[in-house]
Amino acid sequence: MDYSVGLDIGTTKIVVIVGRKNKNGKIEILGVGREHSLGVHNGVVNNVAKTIDSIKKAVAKAEQSTGLKIEKVTVGIAGKHIRSLQHSDYIMRKNPDAYIDEDDISALKKQVEKLVMLPGEQIIHVLPQEFKVDSDGDIKTPMGMHGTRLEANFHVVVGQIGNIKNIIRCVEEAGLKMESLTLEPLASAEAVLTPDEKEAGVAIIDIGGGTTDIAIFKDNVIKHTCVIPYGGGIITEDIKTGCSIIERYAEKIKVKFGSAIPAEEKDSTFVTIPGLHGRSDKEISLKSLAQIINARVEEILDMVNTEFKAYGTHEQKKKLIGGIVLTGGGSNLKNLRQLTNFYLGFDSRIGYANEHISNDKNNALKSPEYATAIGLLMESIKINEHHKREELRHEETHNNVENTIEKEKTEAAENNTSDSTESVEDNNKEDKKKSKKKLLRFYPSIGSEIWENLKKFFYEDETP
Fold first, then answer.
1. Residues 296-335: pLDDT tens digits?
2. Which residues contact 46 (CB under 8 A, 6 or more apart)?
3. In terms of residue numbers, what domain contains 346?
4. Would you say residue 331 lies in a domain?
5. In angstroms, rounded to a whole number, what is the distance separating the alpha carbons of residues 402 and 254?
6. How many domains does the chain have?
7. Mean pLDDT (whole number) for 122-137
8. Cα–Cα distance between 175 and 60 in angstroms, integer?
9. Please, which contacts does 85-88 make with residues 24 or more away whose CB atoms are closer than 8 Å?
């Protein structure tokens, strides 16, 4: 059975999703494994042993639900060490008479991958934005065109080598092979954004447990990415500190009673938290709870607004007509969408990834917290489809070469046979001539009439 796997190594949870694409182009989920993440902080692995153990448990649950052996996975990466930059580069094509194909674009991307980064950094993604062929610019897809110089603008995503190697080690020591490492906001965008939104201009804000990931699209091209090192986890920490309760209760009241807008809550509404080891219960005002949440959410949105300004969303050409799509577990916070609309000045919606899924009848994967994992699964499916196309292309090329060789052998054999036949005929003809000449020389004394008749006979026989 052909199947693909996405692995989301998050700060609060590790999710493994197994699936495949059905004949209608939708994704059929075969199984899901979820485990609490113990070795990741703010999107970065800080305890390798615990992370490996959590990955193994999540994989075991996914294998148990599917009955399949999981070997290869597409893994997400985030964290405050991620940064991005813009870069332009070009290549001179060796054969300008041939049309531009995937090999030319791959050669250009490989050249960009040779860029010298800061010490300790490694390129994760090289994402083409616009192409230029000779003097013609603003080309989205140069495939099939002719030209000598192929140039492009790239969005380059970079991360710290140490953090990347930690993720790779955790995956490999969990008994898995990593087929791709994908920036998490790109995976989430794949799962929740529509083509129309990407064309109009849209920003996805993925609020996870340890980070808030941002990706901006315009004209169906990735324009800006960044990772803010704050997420839902720090809001829980604020509640824990501000209300003097343990983390488990802080997370529960945030999810069940939390609100991003204090004005929407009443002063007279309270939630009761059980006391510790015989101590009296604690009552917390929902308005006070909302005020704690609001302070941290506004700080995160202020950082998001700084990234928007860095990209230039205030410019007419870069305006986000498609607005904002909120996703990730943190987007479930009550009244967050309304606060985002007010604070950032763009219309927003909550992004659900289950619209791509064909068999989620119980809406088990409807929550935005699964957006990254589903996006990684979609990326894994794309990679497997690409490998299949490459295998078919190599097989066709191999068959064409074999057919050409076989044809050349056949033609060579036919030519050799023809040459041999002509050589034998020529030899026979030559022998016949020699015999005739010997015969003519053998009878010099025959009478002139007979002699003439014989000559006539023999020479007529020689006429073709």
1. 999 999 999 999 999 999 898 999 999 999 999 999 999 9
2. 39, 40
3. 193-366
4. yes
5. 66
6. 1
7. 93
8. 11
9. 85/155, 85/156, 85/158, 86/153, 86/154, 86/155, 86/156, 87/112, 87/115, 87/153, 87/154, 87/156, 88/151, 88/152, 88/153, 88/154
